[in-house]
């Protein structure tokens, strides 16, 4: 017997009935993105490794530890399974000159890949929803994206999600803060763990995001970037806040919020819950005005966010309970193989009219008794059974039986024109 193969650890199958909730979520996303006038973009799963080294940041955890990178055996090119999609969107925008005629509102969804220890809410292959606004420098774009994420989570029915935000200011402001931060941490070098010591002179902002309990008090007292912001950066942040207030989106300032990627400037934000343990960030993003130049494009303002769909669905399951997948409108009972041609022709006509119909599977002896077929019809959740018995077919009709009215009422319908009575099945 051949060896049994399993999925790669941390890369999960999504099976029925769970996949029905994914489809429901995706429908919600498409509808909302259309109402906000965002257009869909689809980029490759595999990109040049240098895209993420330059775009995500050489000293980030993603690039240093988590990327799935490999050499193309045909031409030796260094390639990577995308760990996130903002650099890919910017690469596509530069390559195809997307913003030549003005700004763009874009959204995407798809699998991302990070080689890390799988745990609740954190997988090696995970699905991310993202939204990006390219070409608009004003704080209204930041606010619009945050309102978009807030609206989605609200329409999904999620509760107890808070919005935290901060400003990373402009490069000169960050440099001044960085110098103060390095000097402060050097004064407390004895409290720094190995990871913090490694980051001290490469990416000291990331030390502020430490989860080490022994460092929390020292980090809380570190210089805050907000104290180094100039008037322009302060006005940008204050305008974002006032626009969120106008839209009824509650927010709090988190001066330690720095995000994990090098390309952010000005506004950064996260949508956070306490109901998923350590993996409580549902959505995060911010402004990244310098990324186009880093990737070889013209200076272009941009802002975006990414949302982990597994975490959203996990919170939905915790707050809303089990998800009932949509049931078919009708279930076709086919007692004998001879009835299959008429049954399948009729079902196709009904499906063309918008009716969802499940046909009993099997032929010959495998079709099962009428009793067993009715059991499966009832278990399907369908409201009606369509019975294609020999007597019905001889008279050019089928029996329509109610499965949900408690009385099992039944009547006849003509096989010659299914679309004439299809609307009854939709009610």
Automatic annotation (TrEMBL):
<dbReference type="InterPro" id="IPR004154">
    <property type="entry name" value="Anticodon-bd"/>
</dbReference>
<keyword id="KW-0067">ATP-binding</keyword>
<dbReference type="Pfam" id="PF13393">
    <property type="entry name" value="tRNA-synt_His"/>
</dbReference>
<keyword id="KW-0030">Aminoacyl-tRNA synthetase</keyword>
<keyword id="KW-0963">Cytoplasm</keyword>
<dbReference type="Pfam" id="PF03129">
    <property type="entry name" value="HGTP_anticodon"/>
</dbReference>
<dbReference type="InterPro" id="IPR041715">
    <property type="entry name" value="HisRS-like_core"/>
</dbReference>
<comment type="subunit">
    <text>Homodimer.</text>
</comment>
<dbReference type="InterPro" id="IPR006195">
    <property type="entry name" value="aa-tRNA-synth_II"/>
</dbReference>
<dbReference type="GO" id="GO:0004821">
    <property type="term" value="F:histidine-tRNA ligase activity"/>
</dbReference>
<dbReference type="InterPro" id="IPR015807">
    <property type="entry name" value="His-tRNA-ligase"/>
</dbReference>
<protein>
    <recommendedName>
        <fullName>Histidine--tRNA ligase</fullName>
        <ecNumber>6.1.1.21</ecNumber>
    </recommendedName>
</protein>
<dbReference type="InterPro" id="IPR036621">
    <property type="entry name" value="Anticodon-bd_dom_sf"/>
</dbReference>
<keyword id="KW-0648">Protein biosynthesis</keyword>
<keyword id="KW-0436">Ligase</keyword>
<feature type="domain" description="Aminoacyl-transfer RNA synthetases class-II family profile">
    <location>
        <begin position="25"/>
        <end position="325"/>
    </location>
</feature>
<comment type="similarity">
    <text>Belongs to the class-II aminoacyl-tRNA synthetase family.</text>
</comment>
<dbReference type="InterPro" id="IPR004516">
    <property type="entry name" value="HisRS/HisZ"/>
</dbReference>
<dbReference type="InterPro" id="IPR045864">
    <property type="entry name" value="aa-tRNA-synth_II/BPL/LPL"/>
</dbReference>
<keyword id="KW-0547">Nucleotide-binding</keyword>
